[in-house]
Fold:
Amino acid sequence: MDDQTTACHSETHGHSGHGSNPFTTSAKATLHCLTGCVIGEVAGLIIAMALGLGVWPTIILATSLAYLSGFTLGLLPVMRDHGKNFMQALKLIWLGEVISIGVMEIAMNATDYYMGGMTAGSLLASQFWIAMMVAIPTGFVAAWPVNWWLLSRDLKACH
Structure:
């Protein structure tokens, strides 16, 4: 394990001398993941609305952009703070990111769809923003236990 993975491992398993809590560590990892997902998700929804796309193209676009922004936010700190090149950083984070973002996107897109946010037709529609305000915490709640499990099994790296 490298220094980053060891630090994450210690915090997640409660071995840090600083009183770190595995639930806090996983919550921070989930919040970091959520930030990337929300950036991509909202950008995808805005673009899809502007282009008048249907539900499935909207989901594909929003999810693709969520993965792009989520991976970017995951890769850059690992590359910068731990001196990893792109491929080293990707090898370190890819599995955890794929699973975490996937769970988050399923929850967020399902919520947004069922609440009518995807079909609101305009960014000015309250339905769009209400659905987003529910979808974002739903994505967090869905992914938090997944991230806790991934971190506790060393399948996700802290970044």
Remarks:
- Residues 21-152 form one domain.
